[in-house]
UniProtKB/TrEMBL annotation:
<dbReference type="GO" id="GO:0005743">
    <property type="term" value="C:mitochondrial inner membrane"/>
</dbReference>
<keyword id="KW-0813">Transport</keyword>
<dbReference type="GO" id="GO:0015031">
    <property type="term" value="P:protein transport"/>
</dbReference>
<feature type="domain" description="Tim10-like">
    <location>
        <begin position="17"/>
        <end position="57"/>
    </location>
</feature>
<dbReference type="Pfam" id="PF02953">
    <property type="entry name" value="zf-Tim10_DDP"/>
</dbReference>
<protein>
    <recommendedName>
        <fullName>Mitochondrial import inner membrane translocase subunit</fullName>
    </recommendedName>
</protein>
<comment type="similarity">
    <text>Belongs to the small Tim family.</text>
</comment>
<comment type="subunit">
    <text>Heterohexamer.</text>
</comment>
<comment type="function">
    <text>Mitochondrial intermembrane chaperone that participates in the import and insertion of some multi-pass transmembrane proteins into the mitochondrial inner membrane. Also required for the transfer of beta-barrel precursors from the TOM complex to the sorting and assembly machinery (SAM complex) of the outer membrane. Acts as a chaperone-like protein that protects the hydrophobic precursors from aggregation and guide them through the mitochondrial intermembrane space.</text>
</comment>
<keyword id="KW-0472">Membrane</keyword>
<keyword id="KW-0496">Mitochondrion</keyword>
<dbReference type="InterPro" id="IPR035427">
    <property type="entry name" value="Tim10-like_dom_sf"/>
</dbReference>
<keyword id="KW-1015">Disulfide bond</keyword>
<keyword id="KW-0653">Protein transport</keyword>
<keyword id="KW-0999">Mitochondrion inner membrane</keyword>
<keyword id="KW-0143">Chaperone</keyword>
<keyword id="KW-0811">Translocation</keyword>
Length: 68
């Protein structure tokens, strides 16, 4: 019965670790989504067929942030 208790305890700890990692992943996904929205709003403030240099630079900085 001792081995069974150890297995149950380990299974419980693994479930807790998985839940924590899932919460971290969800938080990071929300953070990326929010950052993308902010970047888009700041960089793409006007729609046109061509990007001006300010918009192009801003877009590049947002892309660089996501690649880091």
């Amino acid at each position: 019965f001792i081995l069974f208790d150890i297995i149950l305890k380990l299974a419980s700890e693994i479930q807790m670790m998985i839940a924590v990692e899932q919460q971290k992943a969800q938080f990071e996904a929300q953070l990326v989504h929010t950052f993308t929205d902010v970047c888009w709003d700041k960089c793409m403030d006007k729609l046109s067929s061509k990007l001006d240099s300010r918009t192009d630079t801003s877009k590049d900085l947002c892309n660089d942030y996501h690649l880091v």
